[in-house]
Task: inverse folding
């Protein structure tokens, strides 16, 4: 009996494998050079409502514009960074993009192993284990000055509070961060700095949900801040942070979105701090396609429209709009510099 | 459950092996078929998907330029911790305990390894490496010991206690490396690297300029922790089947009452079992740090090795060889999933669906049920495979409490 | 302004307890399902997967039909379907119930994201409009009671439903014939069978009920508290619910107390903006608290005698 059973399974397996071998085919192929771009996301995945998703948007736009062959791998855990990056590099992809500063060390390692492959990393550089930038010539770092974007929405918040045009007008605003990591803290730093600049008596509360995926957790933290008098809530927590926007909506207050324009997430969203990860991704791919890849750091800030803000669901009074323009110009000119660390 | 004697021509060992493998293998095939239908139903190409999965997992049939040696190497790296944590879950199972806390114990081991590896980073390898590994084992043992002691003394259910300890470990990790004592530098949310003496060597030289199998040899990250993992599986099998402690563990697992009558100290066995299980898990954590990461990062917060290990332990049917094979399957699926997404554009989450289908298939013995219905393949109904541990790990006592009215 | 005084201060605010109850209910619903299922003798650790499935399909339905009631129904149905898989595999095929439960969780996690990719592609899952969410309702009159009015009567609809279900579950399990049968099947299935009780029907019913409840919790999470689906948004609550079941000694009231402890821990943590202690140490609070209470107060937990054992008619 065992023989027959095993034989049956063996034949089935062989047929299956044969079918797979014949079925699998490689994509692409044409007469013109088709660039192969590989994107490795962080563990949030493509649906994180945050920077992974934006990178994907940028990739797809590049695909539409340049006809590149795109390939995406979502990392399910930190253990996947190195193998995912290596897979693309070992297949001689024209550009391997890593998303997120948690991937810095992995990019540093893999870029060292494959000096002839171009790498780009969002929110970081190719580093060694001590965090030191290795300065590999095949790595382009795409940094963002989130504090610029945070500052702009901070201006809005500060001025609304000062003029008594918010909802409670008690001089308290707040921010909910995901985890206390640099990209999150940059946003909050700019926010607090700018709000204090516009309204020196303002109090800015900062809390962390320690989560990027569970809206209920961020809603809880937001409610705690609302109970403490917060009037305008800035979410810096990805998918979790959507709960912040909703908490504000339920309480009839204002909220501020992050990374992308979050106007549709909740009617209470009056502005969003933008981090144009899609633009950065697109730019990196464009550079490679046009043969203009350069190593080193590319910084996306308000100066080159890589960071910014959007006004949603609210018409700002003229003086606030004017102030926004003034501050924006000053930041571009360098006379005003939002801090990177929370003051 | 009749056995029909017939003339046999193949050696009994091979017969036993093939019979033991047939059901899990058949279950895997069945799961793949169902998964393939799902892919087809949602507009994908199942053959491309599975081809990529096979390529990523085992280096077979790589059609898009993947390097087979690299794929095999990546798979092995995933497999290593699964073996040791699989053992950490399988051993308590035998005692009727459900160790859902393998992940927390692994974290404890990883933390201890890192702390020791940093503090004593100047010590040479023959001293530091055993220190960090043993330190990891001790930390893991302590972590599991809490649950074991609570269970043995006051009967606190180990599912609750180990889940709690998991969370405590997670938050302790974050406390240490995000703005805490082990943090490398402000804002980095990771620890300093451990000393060179605490590192496990890779099997192939870590050299960018040496080309092996077509790629720089530093891409092959397989490390000597593999030997540790295999040794753990062997020790587990030896411990369980050839020592008196193993006998006691199995006795307690079968029936606490009967074991007590036989003179086995149930309390002592429970505590010792959890301590050993924790040690294995802690060893897995330490090995990961020493062999792969060389520092502690926030990725461990959302690590799922300890949970995959539960499936590995259950799939492995409690034998050392079974655990290794199950670990290989899960490691291959993990590695293959990434390649499948990159090459065939099928969401890597299909791998999770496949894992689940395999688990269902094996647990429910669908293969057996199907076989009953196919003439010529049917064989007399049997109970669960004899090596399965008692299917009631949540029970603490054989006696039933009185019904409340 | 030490952390301890901060926390003590908080404990006297109605807001904290209002948040506690809301967080507890998210855990209570799957826990009630777990109690029912395990009382009938089927180990159910699949709450996480059933909740996640309910959350996903609830969002999909609400986005399509703009009707929170119908969407909640869909969510419950989705949870029940997942539960049916668990029931069939565990009861019919007599699979190891722990394996089956784990497989459901893995399956749900993979399936939901797989479907997000397949259905929504690049656009990602949308947001449900504010008027299409499960509403928050202040019970008129009762909500003006000082302190307790805010805590109990200014909540989401599902909270009221959950509290009603809590009482209902207790009454059914311990005061009706159905409950007696369920418990009998969980303790002595052979004897129950001999007495004419349909063991399989009771077990199927219990497991499917747990699916309905977990699905309801998923709906609460996705279209009551939140307004969209984020992968893995349940965040381990199903496992906490399991711990609550065991902690509460397989009784609805006991499980509720455990859920309140976790809810309290979460609610205290939510105020980390103003409590001056490391948020990570604060996060450990509910879990350490549970261990302490478990060790000091709860003690031995004995499950139903036939919990986890597939029923084979004619055995024993």
Result:
């Amino acid at each position: 009996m065992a023989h027959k059973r095993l034989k049956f399974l063996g034949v089935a397996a062989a047929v299956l494998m044969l079918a797979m071998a014949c079925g699998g085919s490689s994509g692409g192929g044409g007469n013109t050079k088709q660039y192969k771009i590989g994107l490795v996301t962080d563990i949030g995945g493509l649906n994180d409502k945050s920077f992974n998703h934006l990178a994907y948007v940028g990739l797809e736009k590049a695909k539409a514009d340049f006809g590149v062959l795109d390939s995406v791998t979502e990392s399910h855990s930190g253990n996947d960074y190195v193998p995912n990056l290596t897979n693309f590099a070992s297949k001689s992809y024209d550009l391997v993009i890593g998303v997120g500063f948690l991937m810095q060390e992995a990019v540093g390692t893999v870029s060292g192993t494959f000096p002839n492959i171009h790498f780009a990393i969002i929110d970081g550089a190719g580093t060694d284990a001590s965090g030191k930038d290795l300065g590999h010539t095949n790595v382009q770092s795409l940094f963002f000055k989130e504090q610029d974007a945070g500052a702009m929405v901070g201006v809005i918040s500060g001025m609304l509070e000062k003029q008594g045009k918010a909802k409670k007008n008690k001089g308290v605003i707040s921010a909910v961060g995901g985890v206390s990591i640099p990209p999150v803290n940059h946003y909050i730093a700019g926010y607090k700095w700018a709000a204090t600049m516009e309204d020196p008596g303002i109090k800015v509360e900062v809390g962390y949900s320690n989560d990027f995926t569970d809206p209920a957790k961020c809603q809880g933290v937001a409610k705690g801040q609302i109970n403490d008098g917060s009037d305008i809530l800035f979410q810096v927590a990805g998918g979790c942070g959507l709960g912040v926007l909703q908490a504000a909506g339920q309480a009839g207050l204002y909220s501020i979105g992050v990374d992308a324009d979050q106007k549709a997430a909740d009617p209470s969203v009056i502005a969003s701090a933008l981090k144009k990860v899609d633009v950065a991704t697109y730019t990196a791919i464009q550079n490679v396609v046009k043969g203009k890849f350069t190593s080193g750091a590319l910084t996306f800030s308000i100066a080159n429209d890589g960071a910014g803000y959007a006004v949603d669901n609210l018409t700002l009074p003229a003086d606030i709009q004017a102030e926004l323009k003034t501050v924006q110009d000053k930041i571009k000119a360098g006379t005003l510099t939002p801090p990177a660390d929370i003051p | 459950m009749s056995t029909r004697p017939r003339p046999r021509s193949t050696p009994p060992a091979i017969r036993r092996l093939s019979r033991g493998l047939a059901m899990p293998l058949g279950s895997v095939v069945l799961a793949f078929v169902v998964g393939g239908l799902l892919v087809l139903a949602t507009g994908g190409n199942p053959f491309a998907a599975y081809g990529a999965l096979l390529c990523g997992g085992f280096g077979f049939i790589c059609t898009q330029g993947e390097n087979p040696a690299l794929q095999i190497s990546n798979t092995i790296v995933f497999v290593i911790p699964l073996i040791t944590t699989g053992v950490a879950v399988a051993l308590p199972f035998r005692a009727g305990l459900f160790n859902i806390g393998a992940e927390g114990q692994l974290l404890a081991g990883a933390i201890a390894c890192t702390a020791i590896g940093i503090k004593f980073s100047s010590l040479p390898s023959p001293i530091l490496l055993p220190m960090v590994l043993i330190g990891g084992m001790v930390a893991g043992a302590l972590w599991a010991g809490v649950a074991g002691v609570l269970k043995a003394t006051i009967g606190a259910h180990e599912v609750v206690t180990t889940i709690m300890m998991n969370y405590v470990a997670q938050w302790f990790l974050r406390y240490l490396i995000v703005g805490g004592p082990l943090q490398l530098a402000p804002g980095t949310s990771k620890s300093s690297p451990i000393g060179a003496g605490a590192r496990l060597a890779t099997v192939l030289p870590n050299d960018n300029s040496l080309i092996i199998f077509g790629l720089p040899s530093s891409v092959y990250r397989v490390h000597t922790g593999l030997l540790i993992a295999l040794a753990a599986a062997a020790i587990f099998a030896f411990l369980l089947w050839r020592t008196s402690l193993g006998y006691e563990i199995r006795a307690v697992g079968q029936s606490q009452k009967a074991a007590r009558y036989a003179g086995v100290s149930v309390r002592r066995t429970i505590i010792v079992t959890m301590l050993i299980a924790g040690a294995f898990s802690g060893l897995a954590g330490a090995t990961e740090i020493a062999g792969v990461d060389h520092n502690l990062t926030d990725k461990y917060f959302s690590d799922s090795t300890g949970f995959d290990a539960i499936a590995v332990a259950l799939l492995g049917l409690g034998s050392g060889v079974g655990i290794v094979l199950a670990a290989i399957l899960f490691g291959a699926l993990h590695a293959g999933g990434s390649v499948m997404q990159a090459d065939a554009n099928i969401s890597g989450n299909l791998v999770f669906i496949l894992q689940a289908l395999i688990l269902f298939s094996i647990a429910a013995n669908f293969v057996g049920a199907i076989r009953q219905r196919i003439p010529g393949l049917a064989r007399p109904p049997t109970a669960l495979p004899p090596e399965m541990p008692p299917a009631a790990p949540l029970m603490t006592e054989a006696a039933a409490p009185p019904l409340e009215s | 302004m030490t952390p301890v005084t901060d926390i003590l201060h908080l404990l006297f605010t109605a807001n904290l307890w209002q948040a506690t109850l809301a967080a507890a209910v998210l855990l209570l619903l799957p826990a009630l399902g777990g109690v029912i299922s395990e009382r009938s003798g089927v180990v159910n650790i699949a709450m996480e997967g059933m909740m996640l499935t309910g959350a996903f399909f609830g969002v999909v339905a609400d986005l399509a039909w703009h009707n929170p009631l119908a969407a909640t129904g869909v969510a419950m149905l989705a949870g029940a379907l997942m539960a049916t898989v668990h029931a069939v595999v565990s009861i019919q095929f007599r699979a190891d119930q722990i394996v089956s439960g784990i497989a459901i969780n893995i399956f749900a996690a993979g399936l939901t994201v797989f479907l997000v990719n397949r259905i929504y592609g690049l656009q990602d899952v949308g947001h449900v409009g504010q008027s299409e969410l499960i509403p928050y309702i202040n019970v008129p009159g009762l909500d003006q009671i000082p302190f307790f009015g805010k805590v109990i009567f200014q909540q989401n609809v599902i909270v009221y439903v959950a509290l009603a279900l809590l009482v209902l579950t207790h009454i059914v399990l311990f005061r009706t014939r159905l409950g007696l049968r369920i418990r009998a099947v969980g303790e002595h299935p052979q004897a129950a069978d001999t007495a004419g009780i349909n063991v399989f029907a009771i077990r199927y019913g219990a497991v499917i009920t747990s699916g309905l409840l977990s699905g309801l919790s998923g709906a609460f999470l996705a279209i009551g508290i939140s307004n969209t689906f984020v992968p893995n948004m349940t965040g381990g609550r199903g496992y906490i619910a399991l711990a609550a079941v065991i902690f509460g000694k397989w009784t609805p009231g006991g499980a509720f107390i455990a859920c309140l402890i976790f809810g309290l821990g979460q609610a205290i943590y939510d105020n980390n903006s103003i409590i001056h202690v490391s948020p990570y140490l604060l996060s450990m609070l509910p879990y350490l608290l549970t261990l302490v209470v478990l060790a000091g107060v709860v003690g031995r937990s004995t499950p139903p005698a036939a919990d986890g054992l597939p029923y084979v008619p004619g055995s024993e």
Q: What stands out?
A: The first strand of chain B starts at residue 211 and ends at 212. Chain B touches chain A through 72 residues (CB under 8 Å).
